[in-house]
Design a protein that fits this description.
Layout: E1 2-11, H1 15-26, E2 31-34, H2 42-45, H3 77-90, E3 95-96, E4 103-107, E5 110-114, E6 118-127, E7 135-136, E8 150-153, E9 168-171, H4 175-184, E10 190-193, H5 207-223, H6 229-241, H7 250-255, E11 259-261, E12 265-269, E13 272-275, E14 285-288, E15 292-293, E16 323-325, H8 339-356
Parallel strand pairs: 1-2, 1-6, 2-3, 6-16, 8-14, 9-10, 9-14, 10-11
Antiparallel strand pairs: 4-5, 5-6, 7-15, 12-13
Helix pairs in contact: 1-8
Length: about 375
């Protein structure tokens, strides 16, 4: 196992990691970006086929490079993936793919980043893996469903043909659940269960969105922040309630024949999903749109709170100098976890990293592997 020294290690080559690397590189701060997937953008490529962004391309570019195409178009998930790959290539960002971080620990003067094949010693580390990781949040009783029922988590879902013929129960009625239920209902009987998370006032494809989007982006970046009482209230409510529906409306589901049930699935009875109201749902498929568990177990440092969230403010961990987070939902504002807002957080962290780095300890930036 080899060992090397790097000024700053960025873990994750999604939009947050790439934007942070861009700002560090502009400031001549040595860094390397570690990405577990084979190609930059693969996390986006792995989403379901029909997924599109809810924000138009004019707001989706990262620092230094606009998103290509019609400024008011809504990019597909593959267009986002290709854009991220092109962004890394254009600025020659030092990304190492197929490099998974197994453990992040501390030394007397920095951090150890264990990738299995090598250990990297770093003065600074930016965790840019997103908010929840990729561990599906499945209820324990899912294993008790009848084996004849086809089960998929939303992270595994790509298209309706993956499901067995017959009916489907979609569990979870936030934005992704409503989008997927609407798609499935075109070809099969569909039941959507879960609490109502509300809905945005306008559709992202509508003409009204062109008037609303600039206001929303401004508020998301600058007004609804963790520093103000309004922002803290909105963010706390969003964490509790989940993401509201954006593209699909309640009336759209009704028009396509989706049975909407507000009861939650609470268990299994006779091999069938059991709702809180006592009803068993006889279906051929269950699609779990139940999100992901926050998983920072690989961080061997006392920086994760009892609620599973990193103990940070604007990405800075006061208890552990040199450790930063970027790309977390609500990191500094409502826009932090979105393409329109991540560049601002990345710039802020890059400035802090450069200001806190001792000039004598800077090392030469390694080449991308």
């Amino acid at each position: 196992m080899g060992t090397e020294r790097v000024g700053t290690v960025i873990i994750g080559a999604g939009q947050a990691g790439l934007a942070t690397a861009y700002h560090l590189q502009r400031r001549r701060e040595p860094c390397v970006v570690l990405e577990e997937n084979a190609c930059v953008g693969d996390n986006w490529r792995a989403q379901w086929d029909s997924l599109k962004l809810y924000t138009p391309a004019k707001y989706d570019g990262l620092p230094g490079m606009p998103f290509p195409g019609d400024r008011w178009s809504l990019p597909t998930k593959d267009q986002v993936a290709d854009y991220l790959a092109a962004y890394a290539d254009r600025f020659e960002l030092p990304v190492r793919t197929r490099t998974r971080v197994h453990r992040l620990g501390a030394t007397e003067d920095g951090f150890t980043v264990d990738t299995g094949d090598a250990t990297i010693l770093a003065e600074n580390v930016v965790v840019a893996t997103g908010t929840y990781g990729r561990t599906p949040n499945l209820p324990e009783y899912a294993v008790d469903l009848d084996p004849s029922i086809r089960q998929l988590h939303s992270s595994e879902y790509r298209r309706p043909s993956q499901l067995r013929d017959g009916s489907v129960l979609v569990v979870g009625a936030s934005s992704s659940g409503m989008d997927i239920a609407y798609e499935l209902a075109e070809s099969r009987p569909t039941v959507l269960c879960g609490r109502d998370c509300g809905q945005e006032p306008v559709r992202p494809e509508s003409a009204a969105a062109r008037l609303v989007d600039p206001v929303f982006v401004f508020l998301a970046r600058h007004v609804i922040t963790r520093r103000g009482p309004l922002g803290r209230k909105v963010i706390g409510f969003a964490r509790f309630r989940g993401k509201p529906a954006v593209r699909v409306r309640r009336k759209d589901l009704a028009a396509r024949g989706v049975e909407r049930v507000l009861d939650r699935v609470v268990g299994v009875r006779n091999g069938l999903p059991l709702l809180a109201g006592g009803r068993s749902v006889d279906v051929d498929n269950v699609l779990w749109c139940t999100g992901f568990r926050q998983d920072f177990s690989w961080i061997d440092l006392p920086v994760i709170g009892e609620d599973g969230w990193p103990k940070e403010m604007r990405g800075i961990v006061d208890s552990t100098p040199g450790l930063y987070f970027c790309g977390l939902a609500f990191q500094s504002s409502v826009g932090s976890g979105l393409l329109p807002g991540v560049g601002r957080d990345a710039s802020f962290l890059a400035r802090r990293i450069v200001a806190g780095t001792r000039p004598t300890s800077r090392t030469r930036a390694p080449s991308a592997a």
